[in-house]
Each structure stands twice: as structure tokens, then as C-alpha cells.
Write a structure and sequence with these properties.
The structure is a single chain. The model has no long low-confidence stretch (mean pLDDT about 90). A hairpin with a 7-residue loop joins strand 1 and strand 2 (about 60-65). Helix 6 (about 105-135) runs antiparallel to helix 7. By secondary structure, this protein is mostly helical. The protein starts with a helix and ends with a helix. The chain has 7 helices and 2 strands. Helix content is about 60%, strand content about 5%. It has a two-stranded antiparallel sheet with strand order 1-2.
Length: about 170
């Protein structure tokens, strides 16, 4: 939340929309998680809230990061993290591993379907890259967004290559 609010003031709806358009490829929160997080950040004085009255509509709550919130975000960014590479609970790999109990054609079908989904995801990163290349490169966030996007592109490209190689092996 603090990261999104560091980009500017947002309503709860804006926060969710911003996440869906930017971080949802690697981190997402639902409204059930956003509400308690905002309440906790308010209690800790990491953010403040302004109520904006609207004619004929419910009041809008606009959240802003405070100086303390920027410090909290900076401290969090400085902390070590647990870099977990999670291959656990991958149903496709489980099916491939036990594929000798099926036909190669069936396993190929599963891999091809997975590859189609990967290619759809890769197109999202390619479109995002076009947008990033057209934005102001002087924006302090630009290089970080480019690096994050490149991670996604490389990840999906690598998995697509795995699919292609696997299909060749299964067809031989």
C-alpha cells in the first residue's frame, strides 16, 4: 500500500485499480486485504486520509503517504527478504512427471495449453514495455518499472522455451 501511495494520493478503488494495472503480475491484494491494511497504516500514522464530500455521491476517502510512511517504506525496502523460488504445487509438472501413465499426446496437449496462457501473459509484458518506452524516462520510477517488466518478459519467454523443448522431446 505504501508503495502505491508513494506515487500519489489514491482512493481505495484507485489503489486496487493501480495494482491491477501495475503490480498484479507479481503481487496483488483484494479489497478484503486493502481495507485492513489501510486501517493499520492510518493507526500507525504511515498514511493520512482526507474525506472529500461529493454532491449526490458518497464521500470519497483519499489516502496519502506521510513522511513517517515514507520512512516505513524505506525501512521495509532495506530489510533482507527470503528469496523463495517456488516450484511447489505445480500441477502441470506433476502431470508431466507421471506422464508415462498417459499418452504423449495428452501431455503435449497440457503443455500446449500452458504455452498459450504463457504467450498471452507475455503479450501483456510486451505491451507494458511499449508503454514504458514511450513514457518520460526522467520519471524516477521508470528504470525500476523497466527492470520489473524485463523480469516478467524473461520469465515467460523462458517458460515458453521450456514448453517448446518439451513438446519436441515428447514427439520424438
Amino acid at each position: 500500500m505504501l508503495g502505491i501511495l508513494s506515487l500519489g494520493p489514491h482512493t481505495r478503488y484507485d489503489i486496487k485499480q493501480h495494482m491491477e494495472q501495475s503490480t498484479s503480475y507479481f503481487w496483488n491484494e483484494n479489497y478484503g486485504q486493502i481495507y485492513p491494511s489501510l486501517a493499520e497504516l492510518l493507526d500507525n500514522s504511515d498514511i493520512d486520509m482526507e474525506i472529500i464530500h461529493q454532491d449526490g455521491k458518497p464521500d470519497k476517502k483519499l489516502y496519502r503517504i506521510t513522511d513517517q510512511g515514507r520512512q516505513t517504506l524505506s525501512q521495509w525496502l532495506s530489510q533482507p527478504t527470503d528469496y523463495v523460488v517456488d516450484l511447489k504445487k505445480n500441477e502441470l509438472l506433476l502431470r508431466v512427471f507421471f506422464g508415462s501413465n498417459s499418452s504423449p499426446e495428452m501431455i503435449i496437449m497440457h503443455i500446449e495449453e500452458y504455452q498459450r496462457k504463457l504467450e498471452e501473459s507475455l503479450r501483456v509484458f510486451e505491451e507494458l514495455e511499449k508503454w514504458l518506452l514511450n513514457m518520460d524516462h526522467k520519471d524516477k520510477n521508470h528504470k525500476y518499472w523497466m527492470i520489473t517488466n524485463q523480469y516478467g518478459k524473461n520469465h515467460f519467454t523462458s517458460l515458453i522455451q521450456w514448453c517448446e523443448n518439451s513438446i519436441v522431446i515428447l514427439k520424438s
